[in-house]
Amino acid sequence: MSQYQNEIKQAQAEIKQAGEGWSAISAEAVARMRLQNQFQTGLEIAKYTAGVMRRDMAEYDADASVYTQSLGCWHGFIGQQKLISIKKHLKTTNKRYLYLSGWMVAALRSEFGPLPDQSMHEKTSVSALIAELYTFLRQADARELDLLFTALDAAREAGDSAKETEIIAQIDNHETHVVPIIADIDAGFGNAEATYLLAKQMIEAGACCIQIENQVSDEKQCGHQDGKVTVPHADFLAKINAVRYAFMELGVTDGVIVARTDSLGAGLTKQIAVTNQPGDLGDLYNSYLDCEEISAEALGNGDVVIKREGKLLRPKRLPSNLFQFRAGTGEDRCVLDCITSLQNGADMIWIETEKPHIGQIKGMVDRIREVIPNAKLVYNNSPSFNWTLNFRQQVFDAWSEAGKDVSAFDRAKLMSVDYDNTDLAKEADERIRTFQRDASAQAGIFHHLITLPTYHTAALSTDNLAKGYFADQGMLAYVKGVQREEIRQGIATVKHQNMSGSDIGDSHKEYFAGEAALKASGKDNTMNQFH
């Protein structure tokens, strides 16, 4: 007996047990509604998706070609349409996630209006977006199953038993649109207790994976901005512990923590670390400070000094009261951050780099893997990188090193359209195309994400529509550029009433009121023009 038929049988038993008063309740309608509502709470989603992500991590450890991917989505509808597209074109959501970008929450979801990525937005807007994303993904499940139920009814009405059997099999094997979300908690929005409280909200909303960074929370900057300030390892590890406690308290024992280091681009620290003995974590953190050796007699008013290896050292303190690291120590600090985080509760690491360069990432990962052999990265394929220029310059440099003639190219101007059809540009594009595959194989990257792609796609598509519609194209700008393409490409939103849930509502009305139901999907619904 199929799962669908089992659900009907169970509902029949419950209705029969309740007695005559429930005689108007259809067991099949109950079964359909239950199948359309597979996940009843965000916590159920977090537990389910944590299991998905852990299986994917184990598969990657066995075979680095099976990496995972995601796109950042700033609204539930955008996340829903992404997953609908994946299922339509690729037939499965396997290894495809969602990314919740703190940058986009700040820029697009704050009641203050657009903000920079500096943790100034309401922290509850992060968990609210997680809940919104999963509301839309669950609605995508309900819609897709409702279409199958409608097709099942049509097959029965036509007496087509083979089609009926086929559709029931599709219902039984339906793949949910609900996938893991990697959720950005920035630097924790305060102290460790604040981090714990927000992590709980995020997990209760459905997050199975939380990404946290080692910046000072009240000085937090976007990973691609200047002025980043890191914290000593003890402070960061306390927040990793806080997230783990939140997962454990809520019963998501396999929840995933991604520890992000911004040390590659962060030249400042707010604190000198506490150290109890030479070579401990605090001492290692302080060893990267930019210091000068002084004598006790040379101390000035308010000077801060540390004693290290028998020497009295004065760290360089800026007018901002921040302390400066020595130039050129970024990679060493990144490696130490990653090893320390993985040894103290983090499951994966994130190294925020200034460019997409496999060799640079691999160099650090190789050092990390000398200590943590199965170290895995989440990597930001950032829109802040000029991918075209970066990869054309990488090819230019490789050709130069190999002795190939590059005299026809100006390295500083390789972004120019004049180079688009050259062999150099074609090789660069091929490197971009295979970047994720190659980086996963060579540099331990388990998950590739783009933080804010849908921010850019929304702007680009809106610009293309506006420039034609408000000029001489008028309605043709919409019809040609949007609606005609929706129809021809099979984009489900062309039937926007269906996408917003009108047919699901009609099904419910029929369950509730039978033939007396006033349904919206009759012959006069203009959506019928898009059959």
From TrEMBL:
Keywords recorded for this protein, A-Z: Lyase, Magnesium, Metal-binding
UniProt-annotated binding residues for Mg(2+): D184
InterPro entries: ICL/PEPM, Isocitrate_lyase, Pyrv/PenolPyrv_kinase-like_dom, Pyrv_kinase-like_dom_sf
Example of a GO MF term: isocitrate lyase activity
Reaction(s) the record says it catalyses: D-threo-isocitrate = glyoxylate + succinate
Cofactor note: Can also use Mn(2+) ion.
Active site: C222 (proton acceptor)
Keyword Metal-binding recorded: yes
Cofactor requirements of the protein: Mg(2+)
CDD domains, per database record: ICL_PEPM
Protein's GO biological process: carboxylic acid metabolic process
Name of the protein in question: Isocitrate lyase
Organism: Paralysiella testudinis
